[in-house]
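Hey everyone, long-time lurker, first post.

I ran two proteins through the pipeline my lab uses and got sequence/structure pairs for each. Pasting them in order. The first:
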Amino acid sequence: MSNAFSDAASRHAVLAPYGWDDGWEAAFGPYARQGLIPGRVVRVDRGRCDVVTPDGTVRADTEFVVPRDPMKVVCTGDWAAVDAADAGEPRYVRTLLPRRTEVARSTSSKRSDGQVLAANVDHAVIAVSLAAELDLGRVERFVALAWESGAQPVVVLTKADLVDDPGALAHLVADTETSAPGVQVLPVSATTGQGVEVLAALLAAGTSVLLGQSGAGKSTLANALVGEDVQDVREIRDSDGKGRHTTTTRNLLPLPSGGALIDTPGLRGVGLWDAEGGVSQAFAEIEAYAADCRFHDCAHETEPGCAVLAAVEDGSLPPRRLDSYRKLLRENAYLAARTDARLRSEMRREWKHRQALGRHMVERKRGPQRKP
């Protein structure tokens, strides 16, 4: 018993800064009895990964955990059971502990595969650069992805020092808050330090992941939060605020104020993956209006008694929000249908029904036509 207690205390002392807690200790129990040791994956590279363990950071092979499902491959942020040290012998990841959360997107694969960007994160920090025009549709897409993951989204408006007018900055923050209900929005400048301490305090508990386009300032922000230059930073084009990827792998970094941060490469495309719940949460006000629609299956297009369309008409709901909501739901349904024959059939029937309803509404507006 004393040895078991000593081992648990040792695990907690080394791994607590990386997010180890009593829940992970309990989940690891069966593997401890097999002589394995726990560790957190801090980097994955070509079938091998760096794992922080009570023995220090080790390089381990992942060949024993290569699943058929691409969503189950070893990912930065995973907690793993790893071989104990054995002189001269290679180390292997034997299994992964069940994930609490996972940030996933769809890939460009014709098989409609999903890709996990980070595992076991508590906050999804969405970096949006103010060096370029604010794209609220992209903010909504990232927020939906974050909500679906199970993490709490936070929108960080980076390079806030480039906006000289305080009133203009306040307006940009307000627009973003309207597009991300229930999400904290922070203007931050890694150059001047504006907002960095507030963000660090917010991320001090748990693990966070940085998401955003290339050129959004994620690596610069990661360096500011860590307190040293741990990530490479390159110049971006002044014309469009874009640049080359400065981060090519997903790296987990412990933060001096507490917590851990996963920096990710810039994302050119952010396809949603099975994210209907995330979209609903990202557009919570539309879901609230929809509860008052006359029909429970209202599509918010031409139906009579639609509370959502009424909110658009009276100015309570910006038309752009409804357009974005429809777009993300269509995209999510399309991706789901590519791998589900039954759903494809249901979607075809729904499209035919809506086409017929549209023709009927047009005929009603025209009224009875006289024969010549």
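...and the second, right after it:
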Amino acid sequence: MDFRDDAKLDPSQVEDTGGGGGGFRGGPIAIGGGITGLIALIVTLVLNNLGGGDTTSPQPTTNLAGQCRSGKDADQSEKCRVVGVVNSIQDYWKGVVPDYRAARTTLYSGSVSTACGTASSDVGPFYCPGDRKVYLDLSFFDDLQSRFGAKGGPFAQAYVIAHEYGHHVQNLTGALQGGGSVKTELQADCYAGVWTKNATETGFYSQPFTQADIAEALDAAAAVGDDRIQQRTQGRVDPDSFTHGTSAQRVAAFQRGHKSGKPTACAQSDLP
């Protein structure tokens, strides 16, 4: 996954807030899942107040504008790579979703205050519809390998981010509130696959993604299937408590999106 050296990054789409304080505390929109549930990758958002605004206090940010200017920076820095991935994802979706509204990604460490409440990094990456932001503690990518057995790699990270922006697309189109939890998560996986098929056209990457890149995403998707996580953490599998889908379902959803390259292939009713 190589960025074009001359690709211009827009670091305003990513803010780096550093650390916060405290553990998860419920806000206007409850956040489900998390490390005490079955998965620490993408939390399920219970939409009981879509109209709720961001009532949290501003947090100090680190200016990424001086660090992340070009695709060359994205190839050399993890934070700038996040900027490049976010830029590419949003460039694609703004051409597909009418009146697309950009969502900022907030990088944090330890814990963070959001319109959905205060969350610790144990929750994993998540999207909060209350403030329309993606939240990401970069240490999660180490956990993805050490705790969930994924091979990791830059494209595994891109898959995680693309999945979260899939939730943003669902929020904008009204799909986030409909369907069951598993269907919602599988659709976000499918949307992530759609972006990978179209990413080169956004102008941020020097060449189409390779089979090795896609393999990293598929490996990450399989690693965070409910069945695999339950087997690792509980020694047994309980399908009735699934929240995100099995490894096979998550892989299939991503592949469906990647093969078609069209969001219309990701209708929740068509997913397993």
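Reply from user beta_strand_b:
Welcome! Quick read of the second one: The two ends are 29 Å apart (CA to CA). The CA atoms of residues 91 and 129 lie 20 Å apart.
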